[in-house]
Amino acid sequence: MNEQAKAKSTGLASVLGFVKRYSFVLVFLAILVVYAVANNGLTLNAGMNVLRHSAVIGTIAIGMGIVCLTGEIDLSVGSMLALVAGFSVVVFNMTGSIPLTLLFALAFGALCGLVNGFLVGVVQMPAFIVTLATMLIYRSVAQYACQHLPGELIGNGSSVYRMSNELGAYDALYTFGNARIAGVPIVGIVMVLMVALFVYICTSTKFGKKIYAVGSNAKAAHLAGISVPLMKTLVFTIAGALVGLAAFLWVAMNASADPATTGSSYEMYAIASVVLGGISMSGGRGRMIGVLFGALSYDVIDKIIIALKMDALIQDTIKGVILIVVIMIQVAGPQLKEVFSRKGAKRGDTAK
């Protein structure tokens, strides 16, 4: 009887461990089922729309994911998106070159991330305070510049950066942002490729292992010869470059960027995608592949709310509740697993 109880406890611990490891898949499937019911079915086109609408947030969330793996946080990504997207429009209007616009977006995003990384990693200021400050700075600069740059540089928009449709590359860039290959949105393919790249980096490279080491125990990582300040600086810089890529995708999809609203609350959406993807906010635990499922899940939640015709004023409440529940599962999972493991061990000792 004791052996059976021990096996039962061990089995429950194993199940909880499995749920914890693949919670992002289970959460996504559960949300997808709810969406299918609310939408009276699920079509391939609807699925592709989810992939397209998740592209920008998903790309940002990859960067947020590696930042969270080091035990830090970046609240500036939404404002950074507005700033980089706006200035990328300016570069496009000046040069009419898609490659130069992309390179600028990546470089400028990396520079903004470097500012965060230097202050957090080298100066050792709290990431929450640093990125809260740069969140205000980046959006303020984006709005100020839009009001004071010459009209031709911002596409003669009214307080909005607009791509000039007089340039020959306008159609090519806008088509890239909205076209599909075999029914799959190009921007969605870009996001999936970025996820695949960072899954490889985090699982199969020394750099990825150092990210997990810093997040698990920064002091131990330092004693092992890892430069913690450098790692944190690099991680924030990479996150900024990914925001730059997301900004390029945003411009390609929308042909404009509103400095007041573009990226508004995206830092929260990115964090939500990371949490739904199973990455621990305390650092050192989680899988980058989860970010993809997290971003898709968050977009599907939006679509469920729309399908159910819920009041717009209550939407953020629903999202917040879901986020709290997922975090509770993250926190409670290991604790419950430990409880069942201890019970199994005690029963085994009693049987002896």
Automatic annotation (TrEMBL):
Enumerate the InterPro entries for this protein: ABC_transp_permease
The keyword Cell inner membrane appears for this protein: yes
Q: Which CDD domains match?
A: TM_PBP1_transp_AraH_like
Pfam families to which the protein is assigned, alphabetical? BPD_transp_2 (PF02653)
The UniProt entry's GO CC annotations, sorted and at most eight, read: plasma membrane
The record describes its membrane topology as: Multi-pass membrane protein
Q: What subcellular locations does the record give? A: Cell membrane
Predominant subcellular localization, coarse grouping: membrane
Its transmembrane ranges are: 21-38, 50-69, 81-108, 114-138, 181-201, 233-253, 265-283, 289-308, 320-336
Which keywords appear in this protein's UniProt record, sorted alphabetically? Answer: Cell inner membrane, Cell membrane, Membrane, Transmembrane, Transmembrane helix, Transport
Q: Which molecular-function annotation in GO is an example for this chain?
A: transmembrane transporter activity
UniProt name for this protein: Autoinducer 2 import system permease protein LsrD
Provenance organism: [Collinsella] massiliensis
